[in-house]
Structures are given as C-alpha cells and as structure tokens.
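User: Modeling request: complex.
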Amino acid sequence: MKKYEVSAIKEGTVIDQIASRSTFKVANILNIQGIDQVVLIGYNLSSKKLGSKGIIKIEGKLLTQEEVNKISLIAPDATVNIIKDSEVVEKFKVAIPDSIEEFLKCFNPNCVSNHQNVQSRFHVINKNPIRIRCHYCERHMGEDDIELV
Amino acid sequence: MISLKNKDIISILDVTKEEILYILDISKRMEEEGSSDILKGKVLANLFFEPSTRTRLSFETAMKRLGGQVVGFDELGTTSTVKGESLRDSVKIIEGYCDIIVLRHFLEGASRLTADSVSIPVINGGDGASQHPTQTFVDLYTIKKVKGGLENLSIGFLGDLKYGRTSHSLAYAMSNFGAEMYFISPPSLRIPKDYLEELESRNVTYHEVESLDEVSSKLDILYCTRIQKERFSDPVEYEKVRGVYKLSKFVMDELDVKDDLKILHPLPRVDEMDESLDDTSYAVYFQQAHSGIPVRETLLATVLGAIQ
Ligand SMILES: Nc1ncnc2c1ncn2[C@@H]1O[C@H](COP(=O)(O)OP(=O)(O)OP(=O)(O)O)[C@@H](O)[C@H]1O
Ligand SMILES: [Mg+2]
Ligand SMILES: [Zn+2]
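Assistant: Request completed. Predicted assembly structure:
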C-alpha cells in the first residue's frame, strides 16, 4: 500500500484539495462529530495547487448530492475520491450548481424567505469567487455571508 | 413580436431592453389616447400590506380609466394576516377573486413569492428595500420624453444610494442603453456592492464621487432621491449630509451644468430640493409624477393581454 501523509482507508470517501481555511467548515457540513467510523483529517498540508490544503478521509461513507453541493460552496476546488479496496475507483471535482435550494439561509433579515414558511432559493451569478443572488430579495451573498443550514 | 401577456412585473432584472421600449411606446399611446374601456370586466386586487397612498391611487386610477374595477386593502388591520395566515395562502385565495394583483409589502421579495404562488399576473408595487419597478418605468418614460431617447446618456444619481431602491432599479434599467453613471453620495450612503457588481457584469462605466460639482458638467440627467433621517443613527451626520446634498436654483446657478440637463425625483421630496428649483428649465419631476398614470395603464393592459 502507498504511504500517505494522512493514513489510508479501505472503503469510503476522501475529500481532497480543500482550501485549508475551509477544512473544518467541510467537516461541519458532514457532521463528522456524529460519525462512529474512522475519520482522518489533515490540515495545512502542503499542496502544489492550493499552497496549503486540508483533506478529510471518512471510512464507510458515500456523500449525498446535497453534501457535495454544500461542499462546493465553501471549498470550490475540492475533489471527491471514492475508495474501494484501498484504491481510488472514482474521482470527481465538486461543482457549484446553477441554483441552490433549501440548505442556505438568506442573510437579509428583511427577506421574505426568513419570515414566511418558504424554501430559500438562490441563483449562482459567479462561481469563483462565489456570488449568489437570493431568488426573493435579490441581495447578493459571497463566501463570508453564506450560512449553511 | 413582444407580448407581455401574463408576465409578472417583479424586478427590472426580468425585463429585456425590447420589453422596456415596448412598454414606453404603449405608454405614449396611452397618454395620447386617454380613457377607454379595454379592461372592462377585469378586476384588480390592490394588496397593500404597507401603506402607500400614491402608488395605490395611481394603480386604482389607471385601472378605472381603462374601464376595470378595483378591490383591495391598504392596512393590515382588516386582513387575515393579523390572524396568522401566510402570505402564500392569502394570495392563493385572493387570486380567485380577481384578474391581476398589485402588491406592496414590507418584506423584501414578497412580490416574487406571490408571483410564484399564483397563476394570474402580479405587479410589484414596492417590496421593502428591494424593488419598485413601476416607478422605474415612470422614470424611463420621463427620460425618454425629455431627452428624445434613452441611448448613451450620462446620468447622475444623487443622495441616498444605499437604501434608495428607485436609484438601484433605474441604474439596472439604464444599463441596457449604454448609459455612463455617476453615483454621488456621502460615504455612509454609497451604492451597495451588489448593484455595482451587477452593473460591472453588464459592462457599465460608472464613477462614485462625493460631490455634485465634481461631475455636474458631464450630466444629461440628474436623478435625485430623498435622504431619510431615519437612516442615520447619528443626527449630526444627517444634518451634515442634508446641507451638502440640497439643490436649489441658487446651487444650480453656481454649478457648471449642461443647458439641457434635466432633474428627476421620484417624489415626495423632503428638503433635498428647494422649491426655487421648480420653475427652472431643469425641473421635470412634476411631469414625471404625471406619467405615473399612462405607464401604469400600460402595465395593467399589457399583462392582462388587452393590448397585444
Ligand atoms: N486508500 C486510500 N486511503 C486514503 N486516502 C487515499 C487512498 N487512496 C488515495 N487516497 C487519497 O485520495 C487522494 C486522491 O488520490 P490519487 O491517488 O488519485 O492522488 P493524486 O494522483 O494526487 O490525485 P489528485 O490529482 O486528485 O491530487 C489523495 O489525496 C490520496 O492521498
Ligand atoms: Mg494529489
Ligand atoms: Zn433574500
């Protein structure tokens, strides 16, 4: 078996190329504290592409589409590697969807979506850096305003 | 062929340049032709969750002058909202009583939510700080009338550019016509980044300055807005700003401006424009106010499909 900076897993998912500062936000999205399988987190590892990156390896886990979408918003460079028998069997880069529903909260306290029982909805107007526009109030949010729910 | 039948008028971002020009052309016809009965048998529901006498009356007048009828409310006291009914439920029920809804609401995005919930057309009569598109059509109509066209104008926006939604949506609309824009405001009331981003994505040339005299000689149009005292946490700051952004005949005489500069204001004014300005050749804001009827007649008639 190859030697890794963060050790190997047998079956599961490796989220690689996370910008360092987003590592623990990604961990939060995946609700890692609630997982009872092995989880390995690498932080501030050196990376040719990003300078400094984070990596999260979770034994026995496959990401849902919603989790991938969420990760794309805070770690747009991340790659997802699916591991079987200790080998990478599938690899893809997360992709920011063109519109986002449900898991984001509009940061505008006067927005109708924060007062009525409606699903929030956003249109992505720029992917890198991320800028999204609320479907309702039309205010723009960037990386720092994005609050996942 | 342009048709606005069943279109919701929620945000100026949803309207194309061709649609804007179409609406302005028909507005001109409406103004020339006066009353008719093309909306006979149609009912407008004016749903004003936040009071606004002027917008409500102008829609009511427009509807009646075209032969239609109006129902509605302008205060929350008598509505089911006070009993806790959701906006979506309210408008879904009201949809069955009428052919078109004009909505004013204190929550931003309430018009979009309404439009998404009902199948009849919805016109945004102003929702929170976000959009007030019918005012923008009135502004565009006035600019086209006094300038003979909309292309390649230099337009200054003066006053509260942070909260002034009419400036925001006029800037969006004018971005279709190659306008160069000057945003003139105190630092505390600068136009939000969101709007500048949107303008950049439409390749608009714009400048942000603090005083009118820096740019006055460049302007074809000066769009003034109210500076509201409530926006300031510090009354001293308000007094400072108020003095600097006040226009009068005297101020205009001192400024270097084009002879055919025109000054617009969505009204009501507080004291950012002195009455001495009213009789100058620059002032077109009363004319602008009177355009409210033909423009709203046009919006009602086109989305109801009475004009195709
Ligand atoms: N069995 C495993 N257990 C844990 N991590 C693994 C395993 N196999 C691969 N990885 C990790 O998954 C990521 C992708 O592995 P891969 O072998 O494709 O590396 P790579 O060629 O550097 O790919 P990339 O260009 O995506 O960085 C790497 O960070 C690697 O450390
Ligand atoms: Mg690698
Ligand atoms: Zn919103």
